[in-house]
Write a structure and sequence with these properties.
The chain is mainly α. 60% of the residues lie in helices and 5% in strands. It has 44 helices and 10 strands. Strands 1, 2, 3, 4 and 5 form a 5-stranded mixed β-sheet that branches. Strands 6, 7, 8, 9 and 10 form a 5-stranded mixed β-sheet that branches. α14 links the parallel β2 and β3. α2 runs parallel beside α4, α32 packs antiparallel against α33 and α42 crosses α44.
Length: 995
């Protein structure tokens, strides 16, 4: 008798044996059907050894209750007496609620677990075919399938077979099931069966002999007419048989379903015919197939139907698989496929995804398959469809490091075991790790983690996922380094030919040069070489993600040669996670940023500082430049210092732009391209203004000391005044001066002209730093007029001679250096010109339209495609800017928001004032931003300015990557540009030309 308030001894024993609901378990043990088992220590020990003792006990009660009364005693006696039977049965009941349901409906199926013959330990297709032999329809096939599955699950949970053997047995059972289903379909339609030869080709995990408990079974159907049969009718008959086979396996009956049969890997996918002849398959693969389709065929295996036809299919497609790496689009296809496809996983599920998430099963499978495609063309030993077998072959051949392969093998087995146990519970297709505590506890215990199942499971899972994540990329690149390094005795190295093949497959145009760079970087015993050997596998992956991996690797070698002996450089790359990836992105994205970096490699430090890529404001830059000028001994040295600051800031701006455009593993791509354009325009404007301020100070100090005889201001014009400068823009300016009190006007004019000439000379001196070209052609009288004028002279000219185009040009005027008060007075002078009272008259509007039309016909370079010229082409910068500027001149006198030098701000103000409808404003803004980004991209990629897309394929691909297009999508980029600018031109025709 139990004392009130005190737990029974059974309750305590149940707790010790791992029951989470001991009270419920006590009640179950008290049911009459378990009277023969109640209190038996052997039973409690066996239940305690299962993944979920509560689940196992509930399943056992249901099974005993389902036994015929005449057989119940025999069953319980056998359960207590036969330990192997007890362990298998309770092991399954504690791991699978679905199989417990099956046993409750079919209690006699438990007898299949009572005895094992030697063949039962490792059955093959023949044994499973015997197990399914009596199935005559879809329902009986399901019952027989579950009975066979029960035996596999028992061997699995008891540890008789490992995870790879379990997957192989599941694939063999699937093979037997497909054969049985085809036999049922043929029996149901003997006329169709007689008319054709049909073969079933397993693909995916079934073809690879590594199936899950619940998975789509991927297949391809191939058929030929029987002797004398009409091909068209034979194909129709084969299609009916194949469709019936799929329904037999996939449809839900009173006994549930088996698994979906998926034929979507066939040529043309869902849009293609379900069944094709062998010649039709080959014609498609030889002409139309994509790289991923050959990757899928790597696992093809004939499993059912006509064995001769199945063998012919495999013999025919296998050579095509191993020639895939020689196809024209293999490299861009590989670059696309290598990026993990996690975009389609709901954000809330990414961390629970066992298959597709970072460090998941797909990472291992993909890496192995890709290496097989690259090296299998010259090594038949790699031709395996099974992931773990292929991984072992890659290691044996030196294509993957042995230690890496061993770690990956262990991680893959653990992740697959998790996947198996998750699916086994309810026999549902899922790759999500459960969130419920009880589910996690059962999962952990099923994997042998008994001390703290939930915590230990999470720890082991994260550890193995981290290994996969780390080795996923390393797998490709580590052997490349081993190929050029000193290896330990007994290690197998990648041959130069194999290393070249792999580099080619990863996008390197000159594999021999790449191997030379790797040898120079990784050989030797210095600390530098050791750190670089650690970094290079990851860097090579980042380079391969770019449009020009060769340039990235060469740039890294140059930077490393320049800084390799500097302790902080190696420490930066080793310890600052972002620095190495940022460097890889910058070095492989084009010429401009690497050129700027290699002129002063110490700027690489900016890439490791979280604040290093943020632009520094104009005040800060001007202060630094003027301080450097003040320390210099002469004007040339002063401006050299100013240009050095400009070079560093150009690199900072370009690096931030590239990293924001490409994105990194830790920070996604900037979603708003307009934000990137504004950032670049503002930063380049600020650094050019600071540089001009420095040159002005240096020129004045060299000749006149602290004060020029005339007050002097520099007015920014065009993109400079609009804060919209690109990397390759000249500095459009006007120079204005005003003689100081008591200074003769001619002396003042000579001084001003001399200062301008000296500034231009200093800023264009040939040095390692990029020159800053000053363009003063927008001044009154153009190239014929004086470079610098007094404020009074400007006033007289504008009052008497000014043309409408000059008023339009003054819309972008803004003081950028020199005497601020004089600059402000210049702006007061020109405001009435650029924002005329009462707006523009009809004559002025007509003149602006005439000038624009003339510019379109005369200034576009000969041979240039008007649909692709970013500045002067259809819907390009000129179209948008002239449209906005016309509105500014017409309405700026009454709309204060239009009084700005910035195009996008003026466009927003015009929209806010109701001058442009929302859709049209968005269209113009999108086109302007895109055209500006194209110009920036061309300068970043080619290292020299340009207004149209490059013709060189690699440069064009690099522009595409900067604009957010993946490899192989440059045609889509050009089409998008034409579409966006065509829409913008339609708005321009309406708003500017009044069409």
């Amino acid at each position: 008798m139990t004392v009130p308030g005190r737990r029974s001894s059974t309750f305590s024993r149940l707790l010790r044996h791992g029951f989470t609901d001991p009270s419920g378990a006590e009640r179950l043990l008290d049911v009459p059907e378990l009277s023969a088992l109640r209190g038996d220590d052997v039973l409690l020990d066996a239940l305690g050894a299962t993944a979920d003792p509560d689940l196992a006990l509930r399943g056992l009660v249901r099974l005993v209750e389902a036994q015929p009364e005449t057989e119940r005693q025999t069953f319980t006696t056998t359960l207590l007496a036969a330990k192997p039977f007890r362990d298998r049965l309770l092991g399954v009941l504690g791991a699978s609620e679905a199989l417990a349901d099956h046993l409750a409906r079919h209690p006699r199926d438990s007898e299949s677990l009572v005895t094992y013959e030697a063949a039962d330990l490792h059955p093959g297709v023949a044994e499973f075919e015997r197990g399914l032999a009596e199935a005559a329809d879809a329902v009986s096939l399901r019952v027989a399938y579950r009975r066979c599955l029960l035996a596999i699950a028992a061997r699995d949970v008891c540890g008789t077979i490992d995870v790879a053997e379990t997957a192989a047995e599941l694939a063999d059972l699937a093979t037997a099931t497909l054969r049985a289903a085809l036999a049922i379909a043929r029996t149901a339609a003997p006329a169709d069966a007689a008319m054709c030869r049909l073969a079933v080709i397993a693909m995916g995990k079934c073809g690879g002999h590594e199936l899950n408990y619940v998975s789509d079974v991927d297949v391809i159907f191939v058929a030929e007419p029987a002797d004398g049969a009409d091909e068209g009718k034979a194909m129709q008959a084969a299609t009916r048989l194949a469709s019936h086979l799929m329904r037999i396996c996939s449809e839900t009956t009173v006994e549930g379903t088996i698994w979906p049969v998926d034929a979507n890997l066939r040529p043309e996918g869902r849009n293609g015919p379900l069944v094709r002849t062998l010649s039709s398959h080959l014609a498609y693969y030889q002409r139309w197939a994509k790289t991923w389709e050959f990757q899928a065929l790597l696992k093809a295996r004939a499993v059912a139907g006509d064995p001769e036809l199945g063998a012919q299919y495999i013999d025919a497609v296998s050579p095509l698989v191993w020639q895939a790496a020689e196809r024209e689009n293999f490299v861009p296809d590989v670059q696309k496929m290598r990026r993990r496809v996690v975009d389609n996983i709901p954000a809330a599920q990414v961390d629970r995804e066992l298959k597709l998430g970072p460090g998941g099963l797909r990472d291992v499978e993909f890496a192995v398959q890709l290496l097989q495609l690259v090296h299998g063309r010259s090594d038949a030993g790699l031709h395996s469809g099974t992931t773990l077998d292929a991984l072992a072959a890659l290691a044996a051949g030196g294509y993957v490091g042995r230690a890496d392969a061993a770690q990956l093998d262990e991680a893959y087995r653990f992740l697959r075991a998790m996947e198996h146990r998750i699916q086994l519970y309810r026999l549902r297709r899922t790759h999500l790790v459960p969130e419920d505590e009880a589910d996690l506890r059962r999962l952990g215990r099923s994997l042998g983690l008994r001390t703290d199942p939930v915590a230990d499971l999470n720890k082991e899972w994260k550890r193995h996922a981290a290994v996969v994540r780390r080795l996923h990329e390393k797998l490709f690149y580590r052997p490349l380094l081993d190929a050029v390094a000193q290896l330990a005795p007994g290690e197998i190295r990648l041959s130069p030919k194999a290393a070249g093949q792999r580099l080619e497959a990863l996008g390197y145009a000159d594999p021999a040069a790449a191997l030379r760079h790797l040898e120079a970087l990784a050989s030797g015993v210095s600390r530098k070489a050791a750190i670089q050997r650690t970094l290079l596998p990851v860097l090579l992956g980042w380079f391969a993600d770019s449009a020009d991996p060769d340039a990235g690797l060469l740039g890294f070698r140059k930077v490393s040669d320049a800084l390799g002996k500097t302790p902080w450089y190696l420490r930066l790359l080793r310890d600052e996670g972002a620095a190495a990836e940022n460097l890889a992105r910058v070095l492989s994205a084009g010429r401009l940023a690497p050129d700027l970096l290699l002129r002063a490699p110490e700027a690489v430090a900016l890439l490791g500082d979280p604040e290093g890529l943020k632009p520094r404001g104009r005040d800060h830059l001007e202060q630094e430049v003027l301080a450097a000028v003040g320390r210099a001994s002469d004007a040339e040295q002063a401006v050299a210092a100013a240009r050095g600051v400009r070079r560093r800031e150009l690199f900072r701006t370009a690096a931030a732009d590239l990293i924001g455009s490409y994105g990194t593993e830790d920070s996604p791509r900037e979603p708003d391209p307009g934000e990137l354009v504004d950032r670049v325009g503002e930063a380049v404007t600020d650094l050019n203004a600071a540089t001009i301020a420095g040159a002005l100070r240096a020129a004045v100090r060299a000749e006149w000391g602290d004060e020029l005889p005339t007050r002097f201001a520099v007015i920014g014009m065009g993109r400079f005044g609009g804060h919209e400068l690109g990397y390759g823009s000249d500095a459009d300016v006007l120079f204005v001066h005003e003689p100081r009190e008591g200074v003769d006007e001619q002396d003042a004019a000579r001084a001003a002209s001399k200062v301008v000439a000296e500034m231009r000379r200093l800023l264009q001196l040939p040095t390692a730093d990029p020159p800053l070209l000053i363009d003063a052609d927008l001044r009154p009288e153009g190239k014929s007029g004086p470079l610098a004028r007094t404020l009074k002279s400007y006033a007289a000219y504008y009052r008497r001679w000014s043309l409408v185009w000059e008023s339009q040009a003054l819309l972008r005027a803004e003081p950028i250096a020199g005497d601020r008060e004089l600059g402000d007075r210049f702006i007061e002078l020109v405001d009435p010109l650029r924002y005329p009272a009462e707006g523009l008259g009809e004559d002025a509007v007509r003149e602006i339209r005439r000038l624009k039309a003339r510019m379109e016909s005369e200034r576009l370079p000969r041979g240039a495609d008007p649909t692709l010229h970013a500045k002067l082409g259809r819907g390009g910068l000129s179209d948008v800017e002239w449209t906005v500027q016309l509105l500014q001149m017409q309405h700026g006198w009454v709309e204060p928001g239009l009084r700005t030098t910035r195009t996008r701000d003026a466009l927003r103000a015009a929209h806010a004032a109701g001058l442009i409808p929302t859709e049209e404003a968005q269209t113009l803004d999108e086109a302007w931003v895109l055209a500006t980004r194209v110009r920036n991209a061309v300068m970043l990629v080619r290292g020299r300015p340009g207004d149209t897309f490059p013709s060189d394929p690699r440069e064009l691909a690099a522009v595409g990557r900067y604009l957010g297009y993946e490899a192989g999508h440059v045609g889509e980029m050009v089409d998008d540009y034409r579409r966006i600018t065509r829409r913008a031109r339609a708005v321009v025709e309406e708003l500017f030309y009044g069409a």
